[in-house]
Amino acid sequence: MPKFDLAFFSSKKVKNYDLQLPRNPTTKILKGAEPLELGNPYSNTALLMVHGFAGCPNNFENLPQKLAELDIFVKAILLPGHGTSPLDFEKVSVDILLEAVVDNIIDLKKLYKSVIVLGHSMGGALSTLSYAKTNFDGLILASPYYGITPNPKLILPPEKWIQYLSPFVRWVFTPPEQQPILRQEVATKIISYHWIPSKAGLVAMEIAERAKRDAILAQITCPTLVIHSKKDSVACPNAVAQVFEKIQSQQKEMVWLDNSDHVIFWDYDRDLVTTKISEFIMNIKKEKSI
Length: 290
What we know:
seven-stranded mixed beta sheet, 10 helices
């Protein structure tokens, strides 16, 4: 479980932590958290990759490089407030995050015949919402977040605790070695913030609530691939199953993983994840080239 510190104790710790983070002196982006543009910029197919809560493109491990080999253009963005400082993360809003994703999709649609969007965790919820703003040709939801996995030890749903405690607990600390992954030997290679502002948690919860509304899901008619682990300790598997049923696409596939937690691109099922995503992209690429 995360370690909770009251705001007046933790603010100094957060600032000290922030000063020690290795970052590019010009861009202020943390080393290893940079956005990526890979592959063939002249392809007829583009893939937008949207990372999750407190993360960055590094959370996809080497998937962007592998997908770029499919002769497509791959763009893995860095969401606002991410990959720089937890203090920046505290300032984000639902609209700021959603606008960043939608703007990138619109820009890619101007240049490419086919645009596919892959969202992980909160990025999956943002990608779901984005389709209602500007539709695209394929949607990949990897460990999408539509609700927090219940923990019987907490008695109440985790969302309730976040709501109740956020006025009193400004920051939550999670050690680097406690990433939601079964393959623990690589946990410290996954780049994310370890001091999390409570305000950002409330924003993520609002994104999830909006994304799973029936009116939003009824609009999704493009081919859709959903990949989720039965052992996901962060994004509730039951919530994902319910969302999948409500998506209106005639071409949709649900893939359940048995040997991963939440960060599936780094976990034991990563090869299966890569295969399924690659097949999905190639099918759309082939259909759009006819």
